[in-house]
Design a protein that fits this description.
The protein is α/β, with parallel strands linked by helices. The protein has a single domain (3-147), classed as Dinitrogenase iron-molybdenum cofactor biosynthesis domain (Nucleotidyltransferase, domain 5), CATH 3.30.420.130. The chain contains five helices and seven strands. The chain has helices at 58-61, 65-76, 92-98, 109-118, 120-129; strands spanning 3-9, 25-32, 35-43, 82-85, 100-103, 136-139, 144-147. Strands 3-2-1-4-5-6-7 form a seven-stranded mixed sheet, sandwiched between helices. The longest helix is centred in the middle third of the chain and has 12 residues, at 65-76.
């Protein structure tokens, strides 16, 4: 089974400790039987957009659905199934409806992608097991931890 990934990265191609939607760009990869294949790069046109206007300030727009919906549409249009970041924000519920979010601790794409590839079968199993309402996946040293979202 092949899965299409979007890594949220900075302009220096590192995975920063910031919300997925605030990344400078998304690096696209496919993971299959032959390993990783780069499939593209998308500059994040929504970075810094918080969906607010006027004097409401940052907090009023933080986690706003319009930005999340725009990013979701952009990535779905590229066939992305799995999103990778060091941090996700308040729109994680929306993300889980469309993608399987993977939390990593590494800032290096090489280190993070290597750990994901080492756990490829577990990640594929999680993808198949929860269509439409994915758990958050945390890559640990010795296993994949599947974290269900709390009910609202």
């Amino acid at each position: 089974m092949n899965l299409n990934f979007a890594f949220a990265v900075s302009t220096q191609n590192t995975i920063e400790s910031q919300h997925f939607g605030d990344a400078d760009k998304f690096l696209l990869f496919e993971l299959g039987e032959k390993g990783w294949i780069s499939t593209g790069e998308i500059i994040n046109p929504f970075k810094g957009h918080h969906g607010h206007h006027g004097s409401q300030g940052h907090e009023a727009g933080h986690g706003h659905g319009r930005k999340a919906d725009s990013i979701i549409a952009l990535l779905k249009g590229k066939g992305v199934q799995v999103v990778v970041s060091r941090q996700f924000g308040p729109n994680i519920r929306r993300i889980c409806e469309h993608f399987m979010p993977v939390l990593v601790t590494d800032s290096s794409i090489l280190a993070a992608s290597s750990k994901i590839a080492d756990r490829q079968e577990e990640i594929e199993s999680e993808w198949k097991g929860n269509p439409g309402k994915h758990n958050i996946i945390r890559i640990m040293k010795d296993r994949v931890l599947s974290i269900p979202l709390k009910e609202e």
